[in-house]
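Quick one:
INPUT:
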């Protein structure tokens, strides 16, 4: 049986909201007992997802859920927007691909930092990225 709790939502509308999402992710990770390295991984992933919402969709939200199963504990985070969507998910998941002139570590980096990664996107309907990190 899986229980989720602590559904915290951070709206992303302005650049300052990226900082707030980072703070919330670090605090929840710390409360759950993640080591500092995993706290940094979670915070980095959330920073990237919040930045993507701000840059490409203009607005959206990130939600945080604590997952508690019989065997393990973790955190599930979902970044959702109703922006233009991604036309080629395979392309944006390639290392080095960038549309903003950045380093292109974006979504591939998020995927590497997390234990679970899922992306759903439809043109004109937005994008939902769901990621999870489990306590070791």
């Amino acid at each position: 049986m899986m229980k989720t709790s602590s559904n915290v939502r951070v709206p992303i509308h302005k650049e300052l909201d990226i900082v707030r999402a980072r703070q919330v992710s670090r605090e929840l990770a710390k409360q759950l007992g993640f080591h500092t390295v995993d706290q940094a991984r979670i915070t980095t992933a959330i920073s990237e997802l919040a930045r993507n919402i701000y840059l490409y969709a203009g607005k959206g939200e990130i939600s945080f859920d604590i997952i508690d199963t019989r065997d393990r504990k973790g955190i599930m985070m979902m970044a959702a927007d109703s922006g233009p969507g991604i036309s080629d998910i395979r392309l944006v998941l390639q290392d080095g691909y960038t549309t903003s002139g950045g380093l292109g570590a974006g979504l591939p980096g998020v995927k590497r930092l997390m234990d679970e990664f899922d992306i759903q996107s439809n043109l004109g309907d937005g994008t939902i990225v769901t990621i999870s990190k489990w306590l070791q």
